[in-house]
From TrEMBL:
Protein name according to UniProt: Cell surface protein
Source superkingdom: Bacteria
Region (Disordered): 26-65
Length: 254
């Protein structure tokens, strides 16, 4: 696993900066260019699509989970999980099955956002689901409904140009198609359920073909803004993200 490094943490309008100062840009549907709206990103000098990571025999084994938090901008009613940040969203999910939501999560708050980066494995467009996003949804009312808090997912290969997955945040009858935070989570290191097998892992799957992208190294999740809010655990609660179809960034392949 790559070293977990935090690049930026923005605490609403009263910023408490850990490793940089953030400037928030507005989201938009489809492809968006963030260049010029975020002048102090800590991506400068890091490997990109044209400069892959060099192989290093001393590095730990590659892993399919996010390695770094590039940006975190919590919204109102956030706070839960910040005492374990950033590790709480790095590494594998801690699913507890359909009837229970994990508490090993980070609440984004109303309209909050987070951006994560993969440094040793990139997501690629392969057969079916390429990326899994894990929240802490669980069944309620005797299993007839799901407690879900939706998030809108975007992906990028360079951290500048973003591709947003269409997310029907108000379509409860249709199961909120295209959104994260809908499906329950089964995968957990303690139970041996694979977090990279969409057939058993749970979580919400995303296919890069949907947005016309062949490779992604960044994932952005934005709280939908119409979830349940209150206390410090409002909105989308991120557990983990995992690569299903991926390619090594240590292989020397651009």
């Amino acid at each position: 696993m790559s070293h977990h490094r935090l690049h930026r943490l923005a605490w609403g309008t009263a910023l408490a900066v850990l490793l940089g100062t953030a400037a928030c840009g507005d989201d938009s549907s489809g492809v968006s260019e963030d260049a010029g709206t975020d002048p102090v990103r800590d991506d400068a000098g890091q490997p990109d699509g044209s400069t892959p990571l060099e192989p290093d025999a001393g590095l730990p084994p590659e892993n399919p989970y996010a390695d770094e938090v590039v940006l975190f901008e919590p919204g109102d009613f956030a706070g839960f999980g910040q005492d374990r940040f950033p590790d709480v969203v790095l590494g594998p999910p801690s699913g507890l099955g359909p009837d229970n939501g994990s508490l090993d999560v980070l609440s984004l708050g109303r309209g909050g956002r987070i951006e994560l980066r993969f440094t040793d494995i990139a997501v690629v467009d392969g057969p079916g689901v390429d990326l899994l996003v894990f929240e802490n949804a669980f069944l309620v009312a005797g299993g007839s409904a799901t407690h879900s808090e939706r998030g809108i997912v975007s992906v990028s290969d360079d951290g500048v140009t973003w591709y947003e997955f269409p997310c029907a945040t108000t379509d409860a009858a249709g199961g909120y198609p295209g959104c994260a935070g809908v499906a329950t989570v089964q995968a957990n290191p303690a139970n041996g359920v694979s977090a990279t097998d969409p057939a058993v892992a749970g979580g919400d799957g995303f296919d890069l073909a949907t947005v016309g992208l062949s490779r992604a190294r960044y994932v952005r999740i934005v709280d939908a803004g119409n979830n349940r809010y209150g206390g410090t655990s409002g909105g989308f609660d991120l557990d983990a993200v995992a690569v299903v179809n991926g390619v090594s960034l240590r292989s020397g392949t651009p």
